[in-house]
Amino acid sequence: MEIGVVELSRLQFAMTAMYHFLFVPLTLGLSIIVAIMETVYVMTDRPIWRQMTKFWGTLFGINFVLGVATGITMEFQFGMNWSYYSHYVGDVFGAPLAIEGLMAFFLEATFVGLFFFGWEKLSRLQHLAVAWLVAAGSNFSALWILIANGWMQHPVGAEFNPDTMRMEMTSFFDVVFNTVAQAKFVHTVSAGYVTAAVFVLGVSAWYLLKGRHIELARRSIAVAASFGLASALSVVVLGDESGYSAGESQKMKLAAIEAMWETEPAPASFTLFGIPDQEKRETKYAVHIPWVMGLIGTRSLTEEISGINELEQEHVTNIRNGLIAYDALMTIRQDRDQTPPEVRARFEAHSDDLGYALLLKRYVDDPREATDAQIAQAAEDTIPHVWPLFWAFRIMVGLGMLFIGTMAYFFYRANFKQMRFPRPALWVAVWMIPAPWIAAEMGWIVAEYGRQPWTVDGVLPTALSVSHLSVGDLLVTLAGFMIFYTVLFVVEIGLMLKYIRKGPVEDVETTAEWTKRHVRRLSTSGFDPAAESSPAPQPAE
């Protein structure tokens, strides 16, 4: 395949997005975990929880800063690499991005400073409020970004204006409450919560294996296991919602994820394993689980799921209808206010399929001159590459099941086995730390790669969205981004490892004062402090 401006622009944005998403999930989840820990500290007045809040808060801060650095670059790329996309849908896409910057980002950035430098300046309740505002800002930021992305997957609340040649918003409410966007938001933030829970679990397990910071590690495992189990279960439930949304609005993506070449009669089965062959349009060695895909994709046992071959033929019809809209649009552009009403009526009747006619721009300057063979080729282009989607989805789901099992095990040991953890289980937790990032990246491959050849599904093809840049310009900037982001990633890992090895800073004076107060309270209440003491905890079984 010849590498051109479109391919390099896609590669550059994919690279920056995937680098950025190395930082985002941990930021989302750690912000909540840190706020939970500080809440326990305020409620109990125990110094160990303040120590835990500060330690995990430091790791959150390192990750937050580098996430911001990579995220800002992504937004600039819309103007640099995707200028026609920005022009075509900027009225719609720009609104949630602006709100994210004005409301969520400033909220998050402002209170992050107060969180780190306000320990001695704010009261406990004030500082706790700051911690929760930081968490809210992080999640609000994700909300507006995913509303924008969800609109690209399912463009509702907007329509094409033939006089301005742009998409224009018709309902902000529909854009915000887009079912795909809402499903993506809750699924993505829940995945971030799992990422943070696995990270806290793994680091704490390492401390237990080394016999260091045992009290902090045990309590951190208890929080991570409880929070992580709830989050991992919610990811499965919300992933099912995402599958249903795809079945409603992105049927080709769902068919590609399943390597479903022919329409599957109800109730459709789920392909557990197989080797998709896109050239022959078959899946070799397929192992099916009856009914499951019917429940995920249609929420019923009576509705069929359309296969890739049938959807391709439907898209041939969409392209031909789109050509009617394109022909009317050219007349409107030429005649402007003098356009006959019947021409505008013809455009309105077929405007929903205009984007399919634009797929022909890849092969012919004027889509109306396209041959039947070019129309058939454009319809075939609507089929994404099946093999990466098929396996990315299964890796993501398999890791999700692993997270549920691991979190359930540590939750059981923490709550019913007096926080005693076998060493093999602790090593599993340590080695599992990278797994949620792999699952998250697989999820984004499914979401974004599965949308091709569209930038905005059914509206604007990717091939038309790019800026007028040279291949040389893109190669230079791509190399620059890769070097810069790799350096940032190395810095991130280095700082994380440095502070993890260093461990939490123990406030000896505060702990001693709390211990004295605690002993006095026990004595006043008639308890014998000596009787309340217990043997020193062991690091691991």
Automatic annotation (TrEMBL):
State the compartments where it is located. Answer: Cell inner membrane
Transmembrane segment boundaries:
20-43, 55-73, 93-117, 129-152, 190-209, 221-239, 391-412, 424-447, 474-497
One of the entry's Gene Ontology molecular-function terms is:
metal ion binding
UniProt-listed InterPro entries: Cyt-d_ubiquinol_oxidase_su_1
Which Pfam families does the record associate with it? Cyt_bd_oxida_I (PF01654)
Q: Which GO terms describe its cellular component?
A: cytochrome complex; plasma membrane
Entry keyword set: Cell inner membrane, Cell membrane, Electron transport, Heme, Iron, Membrane, Metal-binding, Transmembrane, Transmembrane helix, Transport
In its UniProt record, which GO terms are filed under biological process?
aerobic electron transport chain
* Membrane topology field: Multi-pass membrane protein
Q: Which domain of life is it from?
A: Bacteria
What family does this belong to? Belongs to the cytochrome ubiquinol oxidase subunit 1 family.
Question: What name does this protein carry?
Answer: Cytochrome bd-I ubiquinol oxidase subunit CydA
Q: What is the lineage of its organism?
A: Bacteria, Pseudomonadati, Pseudomonadota, Alphaproteobacteria, Hyphomicrobiales
